[in-house]
Amino acid sequence: MNYDHLLHYLTMPVLWHGLWLAVVIAVCSFGAALVPALLVAIARMSNNALLRGLPTPFIWVMRGTPVLLQLLFWYNVLPLLGLRLSALMTAILGLALNEVAFMAEIFRGGLQSVKRTQRDAAAALGLTPFMVMARVVLPQALRAIAPAMGNEAITVLKNTSLASVITVGELTLTSEQVVSTNFEYVEVFTAAGLLYLLATTAISLAQRYFENRLNYERHTTPLGPRSSAPTADAVGTASTAQARLPLSEAPHPAARPAPSGQTFVEIRHVRKSFHGNLILRDITLKLDQGEMVFLIGPSGSGKTTLLRTINHLESIDSGEILVNGQHIGYRQTSAGLRPSRSAARDRARVGVGMVFQHFNLFDHMTVLENIVEAPIRVHGIDRATAYREARELLAWAGLSEHEQRYPHQLSGGQQQRIAIIRAVATHPKLILFDEPTSALDPELVNEVLVLMRKLAAAGMTMVIVSHEIVFARDWADRIVFMEDGQIVEQGSPSELFNRPKSARTRAFIELVEGRLGHHTEPTPIEAAQ
Ligand SMILES: Nc1ncnc2c1ncn2[C@@H]1O[C@H](COP(=O)(O)OP(=O)(O)OP(=O)(O)O)[C@@H](O)[C@H]1O
Fold first, then answer.
1. What is the pTM of this model?
2. Which atom of ligand 1 is nearest to the CA of 297?
């Protein structure tokens, strides 16, 4: 090889122009494919069979035929259809269409890799389906998508050489033209190869940069305050949270205000089945404002399903549920109740929060970002106020030092307390707790229960699926025992725990208390009643 000649070709303007055209085609076709590919991916995940099936033939054809053939096809067929595009535009269009098919599958894989529980948590906070996608699912999916997208960008750049068959003067065609004049195959094609390598290396570096940025698990604390988060100094020390919630460290059950007597949740004849299996069989239940109700019962009895129907995380087959006199996810029409698309808005309007068994904090957000997400995005609270309230709630729960941490940097107990704060930050009137302590090590359970006691002492209306019998005995207004999708029995803790009417209830309570090493003597609170 003649290195002087290689250097000459490496700096040859006509080859750089070829590289420039290759980059333009790659960037334009890649960029043009992004949004359609995302839409195709979302359609492919839809519950609607028509939407799901619509893009399938397109993906099948694009993935199953050579790109070279596709480019020749568009170049010759588009003019016959009356669409006269330049060779460059035809190349961009042809490569973009091919990319839509491949990228859609990459997006779909990434979107499906995000746990459903993350969507549930976002929906329960009142985020609309669009916000759930934009704020929670997509940012997390990008992490899974980035490596494959980096590969795809490199493939597109290399595929630009195929545009030479439709006379686009990109780098491959240009180098062939140079070779045809001087026959210096080795030097010219080596120079072209090095120029391609330059571009693909730049893409690889960009890919590594984005992967690092998206990998929130690499972040370590302390991170310091982020510029986007108003600092504690900037937001002052007003005490909205304190005004809302009493802050005594270990509230006594006697401090809990009595329920108002006004119905707050009304569940009427609700039936719910999954795949033909009836899970809830004609459930009717009322809850008063300020009431604290425990749902207990054997595994599979439908407790979680019932809880999730209250805020419409699960639809119902028949019956109706009113929260503060309003439907969530349904609207009343002259023909009866009809599903509506406004479940997110309804949840926010009614003021219902939810705490999940596995915490479901948003993995890609810090503690503070988790807490302010719904107040800012759903309730339109200004950032300074949202951050101030979030910090006050963190102080209230003794978690201030963790505000810049990511969920994976916290213990289960800390994550669950933050999940409770995240729910409280939306000023809910009702909080649903789905086995909030059952995923925790025993020594972490109490720190979560302390926070729940504080909420109870503040008079919060709460529905709790839990077998924390001691907590339920002291604090619950009512215990509801469910079995096989039905309410078997309900009553005050002392009625249900000490004098159960049903043999099934008695057997279940004995089982749980036996497992916990408790017996059915009345607690001091019960004794005083
Ligand atoms: N999305 C779903 N699809 C199909 N079946 C489901 C779904 N969710 C729940 N089920 C079924 O419904 C029944 C009741 O489940 P649910 O979680 O409500 O019970 P549970 O009383 O809360 O039980 P556990 O105490 O074990 O959580 C179970 O048989 C479960 O397998």
1. 0.81
2. 21
Domains in the chain, start-ordered, CATH in brackets?
3-215 (1.10.3720.10), 290-301+343-528 (3.40.50.300)
Report how far apart, in Å, the C-alpha atoms of 510 and of each of 43, 75, 95, 515 are: 50, 78, 68, 8
Residues 440 and 419: their CA atoms lie apart, in Å, by 13
Site to probe by mutation for ligand 1, drawn from 115, 294, 299 as the one with most ligand atoms within 8 Å of Cβ, is 299
Cβ of 140 below 6 Å from ligand 1: no
272 touches ligand 1 (CB under 6 Å): no
- Enter the ipTM: 0.96
Residue range 283-318, pLDDT digits in tens: 999 999 999 999 999 999 999 999 999 999 999 999
Q: For residue 80, how many other CB atoms are within 10 A of its CB?
A: 7
DSSP codes of every residue in 209-220 = HHHHHH-GGG--
Residue ranges for the chain with pLDDT beneath 70? 219-251, 515-529
Q: Tens digits of per-residue pLDDT, 395-442?
A: 988 899 999 999 999 999 999 999 999 999 999 999 999 999 988 888
Cβ–ligand 1 distance for 274 under 6 Å, the answer yes
| CB neighbourhood size of 205 (10 A) | 11
How many angstroms is it from 469 CA to the middle of ligand 1? 21
- In the block, tokens 């195709």 appear at 40
